[in-house]
Design goal:
The complex is a heterodimer of chains A (514) and B (325). Chain A has 514 residues and is α/β, with parallel strands linked by helices. Chain A has 4 domains: 167 residues, P-loop containing nucleotide triphosphate hydrolases (Rossmann fold); 64 residues, no CATH class; 166 residues, P-loop containing nucleotide triphosphate hydrolases (Rossmann fold); 77 residues, no CATH class. Chain A has 18 helices and 22 strands. In chain A, α9 crosses α18. Chain A is globular. Chain B has 325 residues and is mainly α. Chain B has one domain: Orthogonal Bundle (ABC transporter involved in vitamin B12 uptake, BtuC). Helix content of chain B is 74%, strand content 1%. Chain B contains 14 helices and 2 strands, in the order ααααααββαααααααα. Classes of the chains: A alpha/beta (514), B mainly alpha (325).
Chain lengths: 514, 325
């Protein structure tokens, strides 16, 4: 199952500029990196490939001194080093262009490029003239015709990206990390970026290129490294590998017995979504959902799944499209409308969007159902407590008292409060966004078990997930989204890890001309 | 909730200590009659703090309360001058309605235009004072121009305490019920506690903030009449700077400036603490400068206390998930 890393050792004459050797990083309950290795060579582009949650961003943060590894070594020119702060990493010539570029709108291009290490004159003040000259020089070297004196807010997205790259180069970079650099760029801008990468290669920089998109990996990378679930899976030269092999490495694991999907009676149609579109985030979403069914939504980060779900429950407005519940058209303009219509959404970020930590358990649970336990705006405490008790007991929530603040509970119990809150509204359709993200295996099984139970009781479930085993194990049907559109709807024998990934990244394989 | 309860106990203890220290040097201060006088004197602060608490709980702030008080108070006085026979009940209704209207202006600007509350209320604070000047051209309305029933109402004695004190008690009870037992009160805590989560549960954040501003404005208007009547004078600058005392009472009382945490009882104790400091220190011959210093120190200690209790409370759900990728 593991692909041997034969390529690194085949050429012992070349020492990598920067290496990760057996690096481990542990967060409470999650091993984000488990003994991974990664080697970056001068004048070469190494692509880091993996599903969402494979540990790619953690690697970037480890390399740039934001995270400290819990085990293993970082090697610079074959010598072990430590990057206790981002400044140490920058001093060593390691620089990253992040997924969301961190720039300052109100500062000029030159100030952005040199923030933190501006050239000083002999009085210790910032030497503006030198800073502008150097910035112009760097911008010219990457072929970016940008005036160093303009404010960043006056630049377009592509130019901002070039500024971010110029900043990365301003620190005498030896290693340049590009984390999904093409995510926000148009096709011509992407071409320009490729040329820039070629320029950097020619200058002898070691480049780490993180991307989901197979076409660009094959276009510019010299080497690849694949991670899966925080573990090293394989590495080698791009010239020795085929797309299908990479896909296999990304997903290649047995779908285990973690998923106790009970076959629920799939009943009548409950929800029908027709032509749902948004000006920027997604377009033309159509599907139906039946009673007792679990419908999976798969896609890569940025495919528009969460954005669509938020629109479905009235957080944002669609530009067109209609929702029918039990064959009646329902207009959903706000989350309150959605709750009344019987659609509830358990958000992905349950910390930020889920519970109110300063509130007692019972108040959190009844918050969306207060209209049921109150008359004329006055809450009936006895009814409120009864409702809260019913649903917390159903979820087997253990707490000293329902009066305890949610902030005092463990993470797992906080999750239960959030789910109890939504079940208490007695919904028809429950949308679970990444229901098991970041929780340990044991709790995952409990969540899956519970999801099956909900479906068996006749609730319709939409599950947004980036985890292939979960999608395959739990869903009756799967919709794959790519770049805001439905790429494909799959069920039964069509469901396989390879098909999902192929549709999500947008490559067609033989015999799959759909 | 537990740290808030202990906070209330500490505050109550601090007030008792203060009274004890003062009593050792000036026993008459703790005579029941004088305590009632101190309570009555603190009543405007308590009433305003009740409204301010609601606003701060929703992550906003209302700096226009004192200006609203002055404007509404002036209008009540002018109505009284124009129609001395109008019953006090009508004046009370006018003060509540007008105060609510001024509060609604703040609320609309925050809700519909999404202007930061501190900017909105800083603006309306100045505008309200300006309007008083336009109405009166800077002239005062004095005791002899007001009708006896107008000025007498807040001072009338009922069961040993002036009406003003009883109104503070009534307002506190109403707010206690509103915050603990109504959907509005629950929404106010939810919006301040976690606005993102509140949106998902179907609560309209802006509308809830609007409601809090209306409550604050209504209570400021009510206090406007009571203030003008009690002191029997109305002019542009009455209660100048009082909004800061009101915010201070909330903060000392444990209302988190970040919203979502704070109680009616805590806020009342915060106001009473300031009231006792203000009334007791002159009696024991401590200079007004020390009074300011003590009030200031109390605010800083209270905020440090809030920050401390905030640090230990609440683990973030799925902390690891934020980093897991």
């Amino acid at each position: 199952m593991t692909y041997q890393a034969s390529e690194q050792s085949s050429d012992p004459a070349i020492t990598p500029v920067l290496s990760l050797d057996n690096i481990t990083k542990i967060f409470p309950g999650v091993k984000a990196l488990d003994g991974v290795e990664l080697h970056l060579f001068a004048g070469e582009v190494t692509a880091l490939i993996g599903e969402n949650g494979a540990g790619k961003s953690t690697v970037v943060k480890t390399l740039t001194g934001i995270y400290q590894p819990d085990g293993g070594r970082i090697m610079l020119d074959g010598q072990p080093v430590q990057f206790p702060t981002p400044q140490n990493a920058a001093d060593a010539g390691v620089t990253a262009i992040h997924q969301e570029t961190v720039l300052f709108d109100e500062l000029t291009v030159a100030e952005n490029v040199y923030i933190g290490h501006a050239p000083k004159n002999r009085f210790g003040l910032i030497d503006t003239k030198a800073m502008h000259a150097k910035t112009t020089e760097i911008l010219n070297s990457i072929g970016a015709p940008i005036d160093a004196g303009v404010k960043l807010k006056d630049l377009g997205i592509a130019s901002r990206h070039l500024v971010a790259i110029a900043r990365a180069l301003s620190v005498e970079a030896r290693v340049v990390i590009m984390d999904e650099p093409t995510a926000a760029l148009s096709q011509t801008e992407i071409e320009e970026l490729y040329e820039l990468v070629d320029t950097l290669k020619a200058q002898g920089k070691a480049i780490l290129f993180i991307s989901h998109k197979f076409d660009e990996i094959f276009r510019i990378a010299d080497r690849y490294t694949v991670f899966r679930d925080g573990q090293f899976v394989g590495a080698g030269k791009m010239s020795d590998v085929k797309e299908a092999e990479l896909v296999q490495m990304m997903v290649g694991r047995a779908v285990d017995q973690l998923f106790p999907k009970r076959h629920a009676e799939v009943g009548d149609e409950v929800l029908k979504v027709v032509g749902y579109s948004h000006p920027t985030e997604f377009e033309d979403i159509n599907f139906t959902l039946r009673r007792g069914e679990i419908l999976g939504f798969y896609g890569l980060v940025g495919a528009g799944r969460s954005e669509f779900m938020q629109s479905l429950i009235g957080i944002t407005r669609p530009s067109k499209g209609a929702v029918r519940i039990d064959d009646k058209v329902r207009v959903i303009r706000s989350p309150a409308d959605a709750i009344k219509a019987g659609i509830v959404y358990v958000p992905e970020d349950r910390g930020k969007q889920g519970a109110i930590l300063d509130m007692p358990i019972f108040q959190n649970v009844t918050l969306p159902s207060l209209h049921k336990t109150s008359r004329d705006g006055f809450i009936r405490l006895a009814e409120e407590f009864a409702l809260a008790r019913e649903y917390t007991e159903r979820l087997d929530l253990r707490a000293a008292s329902l009066d305890t603040n949610v902030g005092a509970l463990s993470g797992g119990n906080q999750q239960k409060v959030v789910i109890a809150k939504w079940l208490a509204t007695q919904p028809r359709v429950i949308i679970l966004d990444e229901p098991t993200k970041g929780i340990d295996i044991g709790s995952k099984a409990a969540v899956h078990d519970f999801m099956s139970e909900l479906a068996a009781q006749g609730l319709s479930v939409i599950m947004v997930s980036s985890e292939i085993p979960e999608i395959l194990g739990m869903s009756d049907r799967v919709i794959v989204m790519r770049e805001g559109r439905m790429a494909v709807e799959l069920q039964g024998d069509d469901l396989s890890p390879e098909t999902l990934v192929r549709h999500a990244v947008g490559i067609q394989a033989q015999g799959d001309a759909a | 909730m537990s740290h808030l309860k202990s906070r209330e106990a500490i505050l109550f203890g601090a007030i008792l200590c203060l009274l004890f220290v003062v009593a050792t040097r000036f026993p008459a201060f703790v005579a029941p009659g004088n305590l009632v006088a101190v309570f009555t004197d603190t009543s405007p602060l308590m009433i305003l703090a009740m409204g301010q608490m609601a606003v701060i709980l929703t992550r906003c702030i209302d700096l226009s309360v004192a200006a609203n008080l002055a404007l509404t108070g002036m209008v009540c006085a002018m109505i009284n001058v124009a129609a001395p026979d109008l019953p006090v009940a009508v004046i009370l209704a006018v003060s509540l309605a007008m105060g609510a209207m001024l509060g609604a202006i703040n609320g609309i600007l925050v809700w519909k235009l999404s202007i930061p509350p501190i900017v909105v209320t800083l603006g309306t604070m100045t505008i309200f004072r300006g309007i008083i000047f336009l109405l009166t051209e800077g002239k005062w309305i004095n005791a002899h121009e007001m009708s006896p029933q107008f000025t007498g109402f807040p001072r009338a004695d009922v069961l040993g305490m002036p009406v003003l004190g009883w109104i503070a008690v009534l307002v506190s009870i109403v707010m206690l019920v509103v915050m603990a037992r109504t959907t509005l009160g629950r929404s106010i805590y939810a919006v301040g506690g976690n606005p993102h989560a509140a949106v998902y549960t179907g609560i309209d954040v802006g509308k809830t903030q609007f409601a809090a501003f209306v409550i604050s404005g209504m209570l400021a208007g009510l206090t406007g009449y009571l203030w003008v009547a009690r002191y029997s004078v109305a002019y542009v600058d009455i209660a100048g700077g009082f909004e800061l005392d009101v915010v201070a009472a909330c903060v000392i009382g444990g209302v988190s400036i970040a919203g979502g945490a704070g109680t009616v009882v805590g806020t009342l104790l915060g106001a009473l603490f300031l009231g006792v400091v203000k009334n007791a220190l002159p009696v024991v011959d401590i200079s007004p400068f020390w009074q300011l210093a003590i009030s200031g120190a109390a605010i800083i200690i209270a905020v440090a206390f809030n920050a401390q209790s905030g640090r230990s409370k609440g683990r973030v759900i799925l902390k690891s998930a934020e980093h897991a990728q």
